Amino acid sequence: MATGMLPADGELRLGPVALPAGRQIASILSGDPVAWATIQDVPDAGRVWAALCDARQQTGLVPFLLAGLDATTTRPWDSGEFEPPADTAELDHIDAADVLKERWDGEMYEVDDPGEAEDPEFVAYIEAAIAPFSRQFPGLAPASGQQLDPGHLGDVLGSLPAARVGLVSATRPADVLPLIGRTASDQFADALPVAADRAGFQHLVAEVSLGRAGIVLGLECSRLARDSADWQQLVKICAHADTLILDEDGLYDPAIFNDRVLLGLSAPA
Q1: Is 208 among the domain residues?
Q2: Is residue 167 classed as helix, strand or coil in its secondary structure?
Q3: Containing domain of residue 231, as a range?
Q4: Which among 147, 199, 211, 264 could bridge 225 via Cys, Cβ 3.0 to 4.6 Å?
């Protein structure tokens, strides 16, 4: 198989990694294949993903674990609900901090112009929800060059549940969403801002995994944990790293079963 070419339907071996039967995933709009994915969940999916990441330079394929629009992965993967691919060259001109600030301001303010008058009750609600922090966007945390401890990383990867494994022909992970035509958000017309945003989320996961984040702040965290596979994994990592989660409804310790239930996770972390 040539480097960067999507595998054919069937079982697959990439270097030391053997994957069960999979098939190409095609867009219903164009009929063109956008990814390859296993048909069934793969055990020890975290470590399988890591091994495929290590082989990415040789294969030209970026691995990912499938998450669906509901309790299954039928949508969008088996239904082919993908938009036309976006030009990944534009991604280099998008600042993740600008994307996050726009989304932050959309949650923190009910008016577009900061000079406009706001409903005092709304202001009081937001300020109480995020206290002791202010409504001003805090910016991105500084990048860290520290490597993840191999043993700690292995524990985190091993904690991930079985999942379908996907592959996309891409030169870098950030290009995956634009190339398959998946926005993963109803706030954006295409996947480019979401792809830029992913870098910030990946940084957050790394900081929690390193044990350098004592608490994760967010809005509607329980809804996110129910609706987002990424957040479900983050909650599990927080449990292993003794990191708390705070939103407008309260403070959660993901290591405690009752708090995981409140966050929409009933299974043990």
Answers
A1: no
A2: strand
A3: 213-269
A4: 264
In the chain, the number of structural domains is 1
Residue 257 lies in a domain: yes
Q: Can you state the percent helix, strand and coil of the chain, rounding each to 5?
A: 40, 15, 45
Place of tokens 């998946």: 182
| CA–CA gap between residue 164 and residue 166 (Å, rounded) | 7
State the 10-residue block means of pLDDT for the chain, 269 residues long: 87 94 91 93 93 92 86 86 81 79 78 72 81 80 72 82 93 84 53 49 73 75 61 80 79 83 61
Q: Alpha helix (H) ranges present in 192-241?
A: 192-209, 221-227, 229-240
Indicate whether 255 belongs to any domain.
yes
Nearest to 161 by CA among 43, 18, 82, 260: 43
pTM for this prediction: 0.65
| Torsion from C-alpha of 49, 266, 39, 27, nearest 10 degrees | -90
Pick the closest to residue 265 from 222, 215, 218 (CA basis).
222
C-alpha span between 73 and 79 (Å, rounded): 9
Radius of gyration of the chain from its Cα atoms, rounded to whole angstroms: 20
- Whether 230 is in a domain gets the answer yes
